[in-house]
UniProtKB/TrEMBL annotation:
Domain GIY-YIG intervals: 48-128
InterPro entries: DUF4357 (IPR025579), GIY-YIG_endonuc (IPR000305)
Coiled-coil features, chain-numbered ranges: none
Signal peptide bounds: none
One Pfam family recorded for the sequence: DUF4357
Record-linked CDD domains: GIY-YIG_unchar_2 (cd10447)
PROSITE patterns: GIY_YIG (PS50164)
Protein name: GIY-YIG domain-containing protein
Organism: Ammoniphilus oxalaticus
Amino acid sequence: MAGSLIRLFLVDGNPNGLRTVEISNMTIYATIFPRTKLSQFLDRKESTRPGCYILLGNSIEDPDKAIVYVGEGESVGARLKSHARGEKQKDFWDEAIVFTSKDDYITKTQIQYLESEIYRLLQQSERAELANNQIPSSPNLSEVDTAEMKQFLNAIRLILSSVGIDVLEPQRIESDTETIKRELIYRFSVNSAEAKMTIEEDKYIVLKGSTAVIQERPSAPPGITKLRESLVSSGALKENRNKNLYEFTDDYIFNSPSSAASAISGGSENGRIQWKYNGKSLNDMESRELA
């Protein structure tokens, strides 16, 4: 993959305040800010431009559960203002990410397309609850406009990933055996459960067909219990009655080797010790690379 130059600007010098993000040689312009800085955003020229946006927050009932809303507007600031007060007010959000174009060369139809595609990616990623009451419709674009907006969408994904927001990136992915053959396969066994994991960039991927224990340990932390409940409710883990174990129905991405191992064992695990390749732990393998 070719390198990309991303420029992050802290408008007030505060990393938690209003920030702008640009990608070199692209027209995309992202503005990220907490809800408390909405009035500051409304004073900026980007707020009067057409654009799409994502609102981020957490559930009041379950603070660990992320909630996301995607929208668009010809004057994006007016739409955001309506979500902060009035009949269309949304209470859950505490951060907004707005995507506009530096040269104003983006149409209503194009931003509707982006809204629809972002919504589709949010559905597929299964990382957050969608707060949209209606599914955004996807307009018909010309071949040229479609190609251009796909580039814009890829830029949106790159920007979000670069600032640590992964809501568009899937946790469940289709198994690719050709890719897996070229990767190191780590293994972890516990109480008859056997799991395989590969690492791609910063992603720890437990492979389809791996098994996990059904009975959790009494000492399992609440976070592990919630993670396993989420895996079962989403269908990522399904009970295999023949083996009396859970089984992964797809490749599944975890944020760390320890969370992957803990989800499999039903208790706390040090994944850097438990995951092994040819008898060597993940920790040993990483230490070897640094030697």
